[in-house]
Amino acid sequence: MKKTTLAVAIGLLAVANSSWARPQQMTLEQRLEQLESRLEAAETRAAQAENKVQQLQVKQATEIKEIKEAQGNTPVNGSTPADETKKNSSIPNLLLSGYGDLKIYGDVEFNMDGESRRGTLTTMSEDRTTEQWDMDGRILIGFDGNRKLDDGRFAGFSIQPLADMYGSMFLDDAYFHFGQENDWKVKLGRFEAADMFPLNQDTFLEHSGNTANDLYSDGQGYIYMMKEGRGRSDAGGNFMLSKQIDDLYLELNTLIEDGSSLYASNDNFGGSRTYHGREITKEKNVVYLRPVAKWTPTKELAFSAGMESNVVNNAYGYYDNNGDLVDQSGRTGYGLTMTWNGLTTDPENGVVFNLNTAYMDAQNEQDFTAATNVLWKNFELGYIYAHNKIDDFAGVVCENDCVIEDEGAYDIHTVHASYLIPNVMDMQNFNIYLGTYYSKIQSDEEISSDDDRYGARVRFKYFF
Q1: Cβ contacts of residue 386 below 8 Å, gap of 6+?
Q2: Which of 200, 193, 247 is nearest to 342 (CA)?
Q3: SS3 of 262, please?
């Protein structure tokens, strides 16, 4: 009995020991599995953390780049006085891309005219023999972009679309330029080169056009001002090189265009362009070379000299009875001007004085012009004298509107004046100009008629 009891006890103890050992062994395996799972989870979290760090680095680099670009942005600020803009101080500035500066501006100009004949001595038209009133004007919006490096190198552009009061859209300047500040520059596009015949405050002066187009009206007086190769043409474009050497400025402008655009259309020839009574036929484009040198020994005084010449032969002309082209495109002009600008040192009482002269040697025609004008205290007065000689003239029918009907010499005398009323209503850059002129043509015995023209203008001008 005791043995049996002892055997049972030993058996129960063995079973108990076996039962205790087995769960103890399973718990260790589970712990190892848990440890392995924890290691895998730690590796996953480490990989995720590394990805987040990389994402943060990319985001930080992007933010730094944006901050730098924002620091380079240029606010477009108005030039209106502070007392006029303080009510709008909450309006944010326009920020640019950071690749340069952008200037936005405008030019408003409207005129009310009264004159004896529209176009005076240089435009042919019908039924313009009596005094009449007229109104014209336009609004120009300008965009100038410029980028400059620390060493003075720059590149930029300008575009100036405009709309007139009759509902038409035009373009004033449109060019690209680049170079070294105060040294050299390249400019190409649509623009005007140096003015070799400054007229000061010429508010109203109907003479021989104001661009490279329609300067010469057959049968009318021509006042040569060395602007045939100046540019801003509707029939071509400019390429200009310039250089500044201390007090000396040099430029060479090249104008490539339809050379026949120099002459105004003639209604008596079906709207064709005419010269010396003959219809002009274009064969190829002209190329005007226009070198100009300007010396400024003092702040007030400047001297300029230049010339312009078409270097392409047989660019346009008329066909004779044998069917041969008679070249009319050979034109070479010269100009000299002196300017005293006292406003540079005395903005209140300074005097501006110009003395200009120009000479054109063309096919069967020579034109000489001299002028002087002075500006003081917003009042301008000027005089222009032109002496022209025509060696060959086939005759043109102008229905009593021609002043030149045959070869010979003639003189044109023009007096012009203007007065500036500045800052109307105490608004900066809002001005009114009062202008007037009187022109008279005098001929020798070979030209059949004399003529005179006169006019007055009120101009409203606003810059913004």
Answers
A1: 221, 222, 223, 224, 367, 368, 369, 411, 412, 414
A2: 200
A3: helix
- Residues in CB range of 450: below 8 A, 6 or more apart: 403, 440, 441, 442, 443
CA angle 56, 59, 62 (to 5 degrees): 150
Tokens of 361: 């040697």
Spatial separation of the C-alpha atoms in residues 302 and 341, rounded to whole Å: 8
User: Where is pLDDT greater, at 147 or 32?
Assistant: 147
**Phi and psi of 33, rounded to 5°?**
-60, -40
Report the alpha-carbon distance of residue 158 to residue 143 in Å, rounded. 6
Q: Are 434 and 457 in contact (CB under 8 A)?
A: yes
DSSP 264: P
How is the beta sheet containing 325-327 ordered, strand by strand? 281-282, 316-319, 325-327
pLDDT per residue over 416-460, tens digit each? 999 999 999 999 999 999 999 998 888 765 554 556 788 899 999
CA dist., res. 286 & res. 277, Å (int): 21
How far apart (Å, rounded) are the C-alpha atoms in residues 38 and 246? Answer: 80
Q: How confident is the model at residue 143 (pLDDT cuts 50, 70, 90)?
A: very high
Q: Which residue has the tokens 């009510």?
A: 87
